[in-house]
Amino acid sequence: MAEERRRFQNLRSVRWRVDLGILPASPEASVEELRRAAADSRRRYVSLRRRLLVDPHLPKEEDRSSSLVVDNPLSQNPDSSWGRFFRGAELEKTVDQDLSRLYPEDGSYFQTPACQAMLRRILLMWCLQHPECGYRQGMHELLAPLVYVLQVDIDKLSEVRKLHEDCFNDDFDGVPFPDTDMVFSYKPRKDSKWGTGGDADNGSVRASKVNTLDELDLDTKDIILLSDAYGAEGELGIVLSERFMEHDAYSMFDGLMDGGNGVVRMAEFFSASKVGSSSSLPPVIEASSSLFHLLSIVEPSLHNHFIELDVEPQYFALRWLRVLFGREFCLNDLLVVWDEVFAYSNDMLLSNDEEYSFRILCSYRGAFIAAMAVSMLLHLRSSLLATEINTSCLQRLLNFPNNVDVQKLIEKARSLQSIAIDANTSSPSFLLKKDNYEYDRVHSNLATSTPPRTPLHPLSESYWEEQWRNLHKDGTGPKEIEKGNSFSRSLKKSLSQRLGLSRTESDPSPVKAVRLKSDTKNPVRRCLLNTLSDEVIRSREVAGKIQQDDFPIVSTHKEPLLSSEGPSQLKAADEDLTIPAEPADVSETQTAEACVVEACSSGENSPVFYAARAGDEHENNHDSHSERSSITSDSCAGDIDRDEIPQDEPSNCNCEDKTVSEAAPSDKNSEPVGPSERTAVSNERKPFISKLQWLLKLGRPSGEGNPDKGTCETSGDKHDVVAPIPSPSDVSSDNSRSSINLAPGDKKVVGTLKNIGQNMLENIQVIESAFQQDRGQPSPMENFSNNILGGKGQVTAMAALTELRKISNLLREM
Amino acid sequence: MVLVLALGDLHNPHRAPDLPAKFKSMLVPGKIQHIICTGNLCNKEVHDYLKSLCPDLHITRGEYDEDARYPETKTLTIGQFKLGLCHGHQVVPWGDLDSLAMLQRQLDVDILVTGHTHQFKAYKHEGGVVINPGSATGAYSSITYDVNPSFVLMDIDGLRVVVYVYELIDGEVKVDKIDFKKTATTHA
Q1: Binning pLDDT at 50, 70 and 90, where does residue A204 land?
Q2: Do A72 and B164 touch (CB under 8 A)?
Q3: Domains in chain B and their CATH numbers?
């Protein structure tokens, strides 16, 4: 469509007005129709202006005396014209701030007072007409090129006027009156004899006189016809008119902002509200993600690079979209780009019931805009891939090079445009669905908890939730879980070994039972068991740390754990689990891709807090009931606290880690442990506990009909947990209640978990006994700092053990 | 489009506690560019309050003012108009138009603003305007107890000034408007 010769090829303002819907778009529209449309748009503007631009000094028609109480300058009455005047003055001040910085190069057309006044009026009126949008920075930059092209065309007109003087004369119907009639003999016709010497030169240029319009080329003819003062609608209909430049600019601006009943409405990009987009995101954010989506289809490596560097599309796309690339290209290049953008129609391509992912991609124009952005990204591809940190990446993006070949970019964009449109309607991207899912989940979260929180970052999804979704999506466990299972099996073996070797009192059988049962579970539960067993391992390691003599095995056992290969997630998880035994560097967060790794490692940063809190609790009361109730009550609120935690993805394995790492608080940051921390951190404790509960819930119901892993459901479950906890005597009744919530099915799993709980309890008892034996003994711990020795460390460890006890109780209760 | 607030004779705290609430609700900062006050505020509180409405504040000394540093008379130019300010107790007989006109000629101003009588008056006189904004709080004067709170807002726009008079009559704010146009003088 762009290849055929377009009407008004050289008259940008007319072409743009056609594209933006102000002038009739059909190729057969006659000059008359164009003129009438132009005149109509101008009349609209004039009436608008009369209504909105208020001069309170002008006398009003109605009776004065009664209205003075309303209409005086100090009146607070919102109806008063003075009130409107002051409000307009406020808006003007804001607009002026931006206008003074518009294309400030010296001698720039935009800085002339006349132009500034015009721009100010137009912006003011548009904003008064659309109070819901108000004025936003960037609107002036959308308006400026529109005014510029109008000015350019008017200059062209004056050139043509000079060249073809005779065509602009005032002869009616082209028939000159006879000179013999004295009355009409005086015609204001320029004669080469008049004028200065300069005109003589011009006269020679004009030697080739044309007598009729038809001898002119098509473009010039167009110009002349459009500017004929006696055509349709008279002067108001002169399409290229300096007098009505403001009117035309306003119409164009309005057409651009409102999208002319089309899809892409620039005004939406300035609003922060969620209307006008298909998802629950503000339109500009959604459009930014649309171009990211297109990029992922076209150039996945660059897309992944962005995700790695944590570069959100709206960091740079906000400016690109809001000003339609006005800041990235110089004015002349920008005009070329806008030519292309406006050339595509803005009409909605899809019918009402078709599903689409991104609103912006629903029209050719919107798709081209997205494609243009992607082609710009591709242009910078090599330099972007070379950047290592997101600030340098963004720097590169925000300082788009000036010397680009715009045509090449446009060509590329054209080729990408069709991809964009297809991508819109093909199965809605998982990315978008995930975003929606995240938002829905978060919103349902919010519905169940009382304090409102900010929604999650879309990418910050917990490992478990992703696993669950993958499970339900594919029907099979992701491969990582499978791999993890094999790894964890070996882990279990070593666990049983250690337990057998070092345990003095506990019954080895439950461990074996665990191992036996493990094969029957589905992958998720296997992971659960893994993490639970890992936790036990950890607790044993911790115990081993404290009493190295008794559990020498632990330290040696670390190596196999660490050295064993395994899937990234679980391996990392286990590494993190074993980390407390090693103080040094693991506390630094790893930048691994898997969420869980991040989660686990980030989780590692707060074991201290958890320990501190635990210690606090331990000191407060040993009453397990109240402690449990406090935990669970924490967990209810902790659901949403989880969302807030700066450490991104608190996964459930985290909470296990926390509980275990409680026992080894001093491994990492023993210094911060202190009374002040304890109180401050009670909040942080909740999410971990809630994680724990959630994990338990995860394990409790059976089969694939697992209730929604989102916390909304688990919060509901937690409420169930709350009930059983406070009164162990009611455990049975509450068990029955909670068991009602269980999806009918796999009691075996439940039983297995019960066994786990039993096992844990026994292990805990072992450790506790060991503690009691060694209480008071100064322990030569090279890995623990000297702050927490003996009593304190043991206290915290005891607290950790009580936590474990609770967990085991819960498990057993199932 | 300059808004100038003219008021005076508040006699705070001796004769009146404060401006009427309805007046106060109308006087919001940001709209008014200048305040001219005829005097008799009397304390610093009022001065600070007026200063908060508008930073450009001009006051002349009334006989009960506690701050002795205010001048007896003041002249200023706003737009095309020259304004003169004086409390008015110096001009005897109090409130007499001819005597005030003398003062106006003395100060060579187009608009003379005086007070002391606690009665609103506005005269057009010899190509100039004499305005008395009355008492903003309705404090009793040396002459009479029957005083309505009033003040004046002038809208100076080029060669035209519109005088809005705000009076509190029976608990309601009444507004009146007077138009003055200055004949362009031959000398600058």
Answers
A1: very low
A2: yes
A3: 2-181 (3.60.21.10)
Report pLDDT digits (tens) over B149-160: 999 999 998 888
Cβ pair A76:B173 closer than 8 A = no
A66 to chain B, any CB pair closer than 8 A? The answer is: no
CA A333 to CA A490: how far, in whole Å? 64
Cβ pair A308, A387 in contact under 8 A: no
Ordered alpha helix ranges (H), A9-56:
12-19, 31-52
Q: Could you give phi then psi for residue B95, rounded to 5 degrees?
A: 80, 5
Question: Is B180's pLDDT higher than 70?
Answer: yes
HSE at residue B38, side-chain half, CA atoms within 13 A, is 30
Is ipTM over 0.90?
A: no
CB distance from A86 to chain B under 8 Å?
A: yes
Best residue in B151, B167, B175 to probe A by mutation, most A CBs within 10 Å?
B175
Q: Is A113 left (phi over 0), alpha (psi -120 to 50) or beta?
A: alpha
A28 in helix, strand or coil?
coil
Q: Which residue has the higher pLDDT, A128 or A616?
A: A128
CB-CB neighbors (< 8 A) of B153 in chain A: 72-74
Domains of chain A: 12-57+72-171+215-249 (no CATH), 277-426 (1.10.472.80), 749-762+791-813 (no CATH)
**Model confidence at B167, in pLDDT bands (50, 70, 90)?**
very high
Output the pLDDT for position A44.
86
Helix A364-379 × helix A406-425 angle, to 10°: 120
* Distance from C-alpha of A723 to C-alpha of A633, rounded to nearest angstrom: 10
The secondary structure of B129-181 as a DSSP string is EEEEE--SS----SS-S----EEEEEEEETTEEEEEEEEEETTEEEEEEEEEE
Question: pLDDT tens digits, residue range A1-37?
Answer: 333 445 666 777 788 888 887 777 777 767 778 888 8
- pLDDT of A245 strictly over 60: yes
Please count the other Cβ atoms lying within 10 Å of the Cβ belonging to residue B121.
16
